[in-house]
Every structure is written in structure tokens, then in C-alpha cells.
Design brief:
Elements: E1 6-12, E2 18-25, E3 28-34, E4 57-58, E5 61-65, E6 71-74, E7 77-81
Parallel strand pairs: 3-4, 3-5, 5-7
Antiparallel strand pairs: 1-2, 2-3, 6-7
Length: 85
């Protein structure tokens, strides 16, 4: 059985731009923003571009929020209701 390793962290640069949570799995980075709102705007995913300079590939990003149902901004960025975790 293959063992899975997941590490977590966050990102904040000198300009105070931040990503709330970054999960690393199988050589990919999965950025997550956590917001207390039901209808997050897509512009919140722009901060995920900060990790594009990483040597690791970026995986699917997510906005964890108060939405009623699972959704997506596009194929790379999800809207995830807090009730699902």
C-alpha cells in the first residue's frame, strides 16, 4: 500500500499578500483561502498565482467558505462549503 504524505503551511510575503493554507501532496501545492462569506468573488483566487514561481506544480485551489453547495470558478479553482469538512 502506498503511503501518502501531506504537509501543510501558509504563505505570506513582505507585501502582506497571503494564502491561508497550502497543502503539499505528491509534489503539488494546493492553495486554500478561508473566507466567512457565502458568495466569494473569483478575484480571491488571484492570490494563488503567488505560488506559481515554486518549483512544485500548483494543483487545484479552493475557497473554503459559507456557500450552500460545492461549486467552481473554473477547472482549477473550487468553491468548497465549510459544511463539507
Amino acid at each position: 500500500q502506498r503511503q501518502m504524505c501531506i504537509r501543510d503551511s501558509y504563505y505570506r510575503d513582505k507585501d502582506a499578500r497571503e494564502i491561508d493554507l497550502i497543502l503539499e501532496r505528491d509534489g503539488k501545492l494546493f492553495p486554500i483561502e478561508i473566507k466567512k462569506m457565502a458568495s466569494p468573488p473569483k478575484k480571491l483566487t488571484k492570490v494563488f498565482d503567488l505560488i506559481d514561481k515554486s518549483p512544485l506544480q500548483r494543483g487545484t485551489g479552493a475557497i473554503l467558505c459559507m456557500a450552500d453547495q460545492l461549486g467552481a470558478f473554473d477547472q482549477n479553482n473550487l468553491i468548497v462549503p465549510i459544511s463539507l469538512i
